[in-house]
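Priority: low. Protein: Thioesterase family protein. Input follows.
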Amino acid sequence: MSTDTQPSYETLAPMPAFAEQPVPIAFEDNNGHLNVRHYLGIGSEGLDESLVGVGIPINWPTSAGHACFAAEHHVTYLAELRTGDRMSVRVRLLGRSERAAHALVYILDDTHERLSCVFEEIFLHIDLKDRKTAPWPDDVAQALDDRIAEHAGLGWEPVTSGSMRLR
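Result:
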């Protein structure tokens, strides 16, 4: 995934924003920018926030005994984020299977109006009774399908790593 094939900041910015925040000094590494370990955490926070709208609340494990577990990631760093830079997350759902979903998570540098990082994720629906994958509940499956269809109509093609797929 190169920067010239990814959607631009201008393309992504109109999408709903999640996990909006400045880069805190505690997240800085010895190079003076956001430490690599925090990109995934910030992006995951944004993905979790975006899933509330499809019936997956943050407290899903305690309220319903269901959870989403990440199964696979592919991360591409495109531009550094430095302490104090404003950042936000955009999420595009690409597809789902009976027990999994496929998403692209974009971390934007809102201070410099550029795409900083993109990661592709496969996440699984887990029934916490036995901590195994399970079919999506019908209402969540329908809401995921609706969001996937909405995102398919965005007018631009998503760029994936080509290294993962739904099974």
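The mean pLDDT is 95. The helical segments are 9-12, 36-51, 60-64, 138-152.
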